[in-house]
């Protein structure tokens, strides 16, 4: 016998995923700029959703303060460009690092709060960060600022794309941002998948299901929670920086928006299916479809989204993917360990 | 004298925050439920009072008397039909349900009342003040603070002097054993949320009379309420008042230094307390 | 029959704890249920009280099916429970713990605060102390008093001697005749066989989720009990 997480569907899904990524890479050759921009939004939301799912669905850490890391990541990128004269692309890692640095005191404070109060604790930290950033006059204070034209005019890598696809510069910039978003999303999903398949995945499952029991079998739950929180913050910061490279204009209210960077993300995960890698992928598709359908109805859109999330939690707490997978037994990303019989030589 | 004035204003402001916090604390104390829609429910109640004052031409105080039983019924129904279904060992479902409610409520109000700022007109009371010798304070802040004390005394009376309060405490301790006493825990939870919504209505009354409100301000009220609860120590209503006062004083002093620092100063005070006394100032012995 | 179980099966998820248990309790009768740890005695009481739900007709109260009712409804029918481990409410004083027992249902009957204090005089002196600040024996008195406050038809006592010193157990059991004399039917679940037999009219012995012996309490032999308790030859 051996323990395996591999399944036939999993292998087929893996191959299809590769094909899909190849297609996505080639997409700018024939898709319109509007499609590329929409896909950029979808991919960044998908990344944020996967990270939030890692926190809440796998780590049991319900954060309502992820906008802190999006916002700070974005501002750090702006600081790198405006204050240090970096190329925006090269300034993106600063976003990750700044978010990582913020996540340490955040974890320190928020982990002191019991269970559900952790959620509001992270929200407080995000508010404090927003208010502090709004005091940073060099970066526009409360009203915000834009990336200077000279910084956006010759972003690293834009020129070859412009030539390759015969695009105008602004459109080429969107293609670059789209590719980066694609890479970030794919790497994030792959990394989380790898994480869940190795020992950390088992430890996480133990921590989420029963912290006390996990402790009793020697899993250092505090360390695992710290690790997950810091990793998620770092990548969330990178994503925030990337989003604002594309947007090129920032303000504290937008960059630290709880609606855009946390509420949407939570709804994507909840509707798609919490605690499953497939959940956010399905969720982001549903989310985007709803957004297109309800785009003209203003507040009705968020009202509907909120109510759908409530209904899903009440009647299908494992989300749409949970429903689907219960009916079909489908697992695109098999992370469950199963015992499998293998024939050893010598017929033993 | 300016500092004394700032201090007094801050203490009185703390009364408002204690009112925000009392309902949150009540619900958490009895069923360990953190209601992320609490702030939006306060704003919802403020709009309910506004609607009653406008349609019936009543003073906000009278309108709140009408709104309170309605809010009680809504809270009861919400708990009975929605929240009771997701209460359990896993903290995720109730958090996500109340978060969904929060966003839905905000946007429902936005749709119904637009993003315009509103205010409950309290008449001459709004600007009336009383000279206390060293400082002059407005009647409204004074009334808010007195109401906060009255609400806390009232809740404590209910908790420690009535059969209902006994059922609240017993259910909070051990719902299974409470059910062996003939008490239906889910019914108790529904009553508790109903009661919390009455407190929310009172908080909404003062929120609306003292300042402008619009559909978007709920989350900030939730955060103030939460900070007051944590500073006070979970489960202590008087501690919650102390927590509210600390945030209020920090805010007025912050604002006195630089108006932009008002909110920030309140949050920083909270973080300092969390740093020094992680279990709050008046933690309950048993938890 | 005031209380009856019929082919009662009960399970915790996949784990079956009872396999077709039939017991009866007549009005005013005291029945002892004995058995080793894990025999299913506590599961039986949990099923009767509704903490563990079953098919409706697996538990009958006065001939009516109550197997699927929740505990608060079962209690209101007059079936009161002294839970294992006493389970006093830590936030309530001794007197409040007693009061809450009769808060929802209070049938006419002999039991009141005064009557409980007569039965267990020590509790009156400690009436304002937090329930959980008392000694184990005194807490057990509160738990029994709490169950009596509703003037129940049926009193279920789950391991009331567990963890108590012999002298304390004697005091607690000394109260049982007074309780029986009011006409309340009693089920005592016990590991202390001698204690159980001393108060019971009939005895059931359980092993591995089944009833292995039903006998009048007077006249049952040690050998019979040994056989039923452990299975196999005595």
Automatic annotation (TrEMBL), chain A:
The keyword Membrane applies. Coiled coil: none annotated. It is a multi-pass membrane protein. Signal peptide: none annotated. GO terms for molecular function: branched-chain amino acid transmembrane transporter activity. The keyword Transmembrane helix applies. This is Branched-chain amino acid ABC transporter permease. The lineage of its organism: Bacteria, Pseudomonadati, Pseudomonadota, Alphaproteobacteria, Rhodobacterales.
Automatic annotation (TrEMBL), chain B:
One of its GO terms (molecular function) is transmembrane transporter activity. It is found in: Cell membrane. One of its GO terms (biological process) is amino acid transport. This is Branched-chain amino acid ABC transporter permease. Pfam families: BPD_transp_2. Keywords: Amino-acid transport, Cell membrane, Membrane, Transmembrane, Transmembrane helix, Transport. It comes from Stagnihabitans tardus. Belongs to the binding-protein-dependent transport system permease family. LivHM subfamily. The chain crosses the membrane at residues 6-26, 33-52, 58-79, 91-110, 139-159, 188-208, 228-249, 261-278. CDD domains: TM_PBP1_LivH_like. GO terms for cellular component: plasma membrane. It is a multi-pass membrane protein. Signal peptide: none annotated. The lineage of its organism: Bacteria, Pseudomonadati, Pseudomonadota, Alphaproteobacteria, Rhodobacterales.
């Amino acid at each position: 016998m051996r323990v395996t997480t591999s399944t036939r569907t999993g292998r087929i899904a893996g191959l299809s995923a590769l094909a899909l990524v190849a297609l996505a890479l080639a997409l700018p050759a024939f898709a319109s700029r509007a499609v590329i921009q929409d896909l950029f939004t979808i991919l960044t939301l998908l990344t944020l959703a996967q990270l939030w799912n890692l926190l809440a669905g796998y780590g049991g850490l319900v954060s309502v303060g992820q906008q802190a890391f999006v916002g700070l990541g974005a501002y750090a990128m702006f600081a790198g460009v405006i204050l240090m004269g970096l190329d925006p692309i090269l300034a993106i890692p600063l976003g990750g690092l700044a978010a990582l640095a913020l996540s340490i005191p955040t974890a320190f404070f928020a982990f002191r709060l019991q269970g559900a109060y952790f959620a509001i604790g992270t929200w407080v930290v995000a508010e404090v960060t927003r208010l502090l950033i709004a005091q940073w006059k060099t970066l526009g204070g409360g009203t915000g600022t834009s990336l200077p034209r000279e910084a956006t005019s010759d972003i690293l890598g834009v020129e070859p794309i412009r030539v390759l696809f015969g695009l105008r510069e602004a459109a080429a910039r969107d293609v670059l941002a789209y590719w980066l978003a694609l890479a970030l999303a794919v790497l994030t999903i792959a990394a989380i998948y790898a994480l869940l398949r190795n020992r950390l995945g088992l430890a996480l499952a133990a921590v989420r299901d029963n912290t006390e029991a996990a402790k009793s079998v020697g899993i250092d739950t505090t360390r695992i929670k710290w690790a997950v929180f810091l990793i998620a913050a770092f990548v969330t910061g990178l994503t925030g920086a990337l989003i604002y490279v594309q947007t090129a204009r920032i303000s504290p209210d937008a960059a630290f928006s709880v609606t855009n960077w946390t509420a949407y993300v939570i709804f994507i995960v909840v509707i798609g299916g919490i605690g499953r890698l497939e959940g956010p992928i399905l969720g982001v598709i549903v989310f985007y479809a709803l957004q297109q359908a309800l785009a003209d109805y203003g507040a009705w859109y968020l009202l509907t989204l909120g109510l759908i999330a409530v209904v899903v939690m009440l009647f299908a707490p494992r989300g749409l993917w949970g429903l689907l997978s219960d009916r079909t037994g489908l697992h695109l990303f098999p992370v469950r360990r199963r015992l499998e019989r293998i024939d050893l030589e010598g017929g033993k | 004298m300016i500092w004394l004035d700032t201090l007094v204003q801050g203490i009185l402001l703390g009364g408002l925050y204690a009112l925000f916090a009392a309902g949150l604390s009540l619900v958490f104390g009895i069923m360990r439920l953190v209601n992320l829609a609490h702030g939006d429910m306060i704003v919802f109640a403020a709009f309910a009072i506004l609607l009653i004052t406008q349609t019936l031409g009543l003073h906000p105080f009278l309108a709140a008397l009408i709104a309170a039983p309605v809010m009680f019924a809504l809270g009861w129904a919400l708990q009975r039909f929605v929240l009771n279904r997701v209460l359990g060992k896993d903290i995720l479902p109730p958090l996500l349900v109340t978060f969904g409610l929060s966003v839905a409520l905000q946007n429902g109000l936005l749709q119904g009342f637009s993003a315009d700022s509103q205010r409950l007109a309290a008449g001459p009371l709004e600007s009336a003040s009383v000279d206390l010798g060293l400082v002059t304070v407005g009647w409204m802040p004074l009334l808010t603070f007195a109401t906060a004390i009255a609400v806390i005394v009232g809740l404590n009376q209910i908790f420690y002097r009535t059969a209902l309060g006994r059922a609240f405490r017993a259910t909070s301790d051990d719902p299974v054993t409470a059910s062996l006493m003939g008490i239906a825990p889910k019914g108790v939870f529904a009553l508790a949320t109903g009661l919390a919504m009455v407190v929310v209505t009172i908080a909404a009354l003062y929120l609306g009379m003292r300042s402008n409100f619009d559909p978007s301000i709920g989350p900030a009220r939730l955060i103030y309420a939460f900070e007051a609860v944590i500073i006070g120590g979970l489960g202590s209503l008087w501690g919650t008042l102390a927590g509210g006062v600390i945030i209020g004083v920090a805010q007025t002093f912050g604002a006195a230094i630089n108006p932009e620092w008002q909110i920030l100063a309140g949050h920083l005070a909270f973080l300092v307390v969390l740093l020094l006394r992680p279990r709050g100032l008046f933690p309950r012995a048993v938890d | 029959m005031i209380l009856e179980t019929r082919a009662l099966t009960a399970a915790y998820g996949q784990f079956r704890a009872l396999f077709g248990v039939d017991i009866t309790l007549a009005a005013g009768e005291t029945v002892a249920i004995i058995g080793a740890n894990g025999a299913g005695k506590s599961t039986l009481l949990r099923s009767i009280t509704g903490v563990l739900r079953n098919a409706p007709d697996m538990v009958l109260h006065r001939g009516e099916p109550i197997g699927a009712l929740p505990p608060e409804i079962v209690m209101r029918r007059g079936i009161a429970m002294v839970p294992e481990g006493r389970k006093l409410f830590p936030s309530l004083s001794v007197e409040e713990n007693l009061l809450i027992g009769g808060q929802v249902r209070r049938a006419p009957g002999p039991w009141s605060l005064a009557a409980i204090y007569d039965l267990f005089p020590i509790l009156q002196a400690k009436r304002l102390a937090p329930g959980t600040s008392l000694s184990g024996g005194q807490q057990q008195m509160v738990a029994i008093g709490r169950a009596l406050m509703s003037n129940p038809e049926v009193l279920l006592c789950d391991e009331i001697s567990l963890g108590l010193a012999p002298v304390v157990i004697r005091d607690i059991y000394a109260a049982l005749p007074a309780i029986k004399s009011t006409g309340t039917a009693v089920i005592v679940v016990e590991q202390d066989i001698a204690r159980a037999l001393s108060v019971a009219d009939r005895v059931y012995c359980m092993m591995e989720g089944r009833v292995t012996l039903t006998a009048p309490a007077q006249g049952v032999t040690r050998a019979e009990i040994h056989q039923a308790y452990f299975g196999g030859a005595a």
